[in-house]
# Entry
Amino acid sequence: MATINIGLFGLGTVGSGIVKIIGKARNAHAEIKRICVRDINKPRSIDLDPTLLTSNPDDIFNDPRINLIVEVISDAEASYRIVTRALRAGIPVVSGSKAMIARHLPELIDLQRRYDTALLYDASSCGSIPVIRNLEEYYDNDLLLEVKGILNGSSNYILSQVFDHDESYDSALKRAQQLGFAEADPSFDIDGYDSLFKLIIITVHALGVYVAPEEIFTYGISHINDYDINYAREKRVKIKLVAQVAKIGDDKFTMFVMPEFVTRSKYIYSVDDEYNGVVIRGECYDRQFMFGKGAGSLPTASSILSDVMARLHGYRYEYKKMGYRGRPAYTTDLPLKVYVRFKDTDIPSLLPFESISERYSSTGVNYVVGLIKLADLIANRPLLDTPDVFIANIPTFFTDLDK
# Structure
């Protein structure tokens, strides 16, 4: 059996995990030949041959032994340069860069076809959970109705500490940072963008349609406060940051990322700490659930290894659904039921609700529950960014099927 000779870009948390896990995998038939890093002299947490290290990408691209590039760097622009250069050179790539892939996926698909090579990225969406390949291969039909779940471990850890351990939001965020689940600047996770980029990638493999990030309503948990938490507890629900794509009839679908009131009967209610959980719903098989660690050195590295071994057998994504007849069209012209908490911002007057079913006002806090079109939430997105406003989805899709 042929050997995979890897040129690795990045030796941070995930890169170090890849070095460890490939060393343990006896049947991987893979070997790391060169590793490109920014600083060769930086202290490392793993022991490795220093001659493997280089700071010059050309040392990897010009090495005739290397037949697979793996990139796990945090710089999205550099990731884009590496991946596109590799594809144009006919070198298969495994990538974990969700932001880069989500922003450039149509171009990356075109490059794969033009240069007859492959880009694999299961690790970009949900870490150790094999969502992409399952959507690509097992759910390779048009009976899929919904993919929904908790796609970000950092925000989920914070909310788990709040709802399961009665910790304050600020304290839970600090703990997540101390444990390495959240960055010093946690906005990428808690404002929903990590989940958004994963959802975009998932949607391409679920429905065969690409939607650009700026077209999708994305709202995180950074404005949550004690009132929202207590309101959820009174309703006997948890607040989770949820990403979802759902078909609305046969010819349309929608997608968004929002905090959601999750009832005890839902699978994702019990997805806690840094774990991810994904529910896949279809016309003929009801709901199926995938659960696992969505981030971290070894869980993500295990997903990278899976892609490496897939390349050993010549695997590539075929993007079959992009060629299906009657693919659904993206729409935001549909009502959502939402909870909006506010203090000084006059939400009922400023947001065009179709109807309001619940309203509360006091000197300290106010809230409304009502129906509003997703398009109107997108149009009024700046209004929702004010510090005294928090919004959460109250799910209405497919509730009749869950009874």
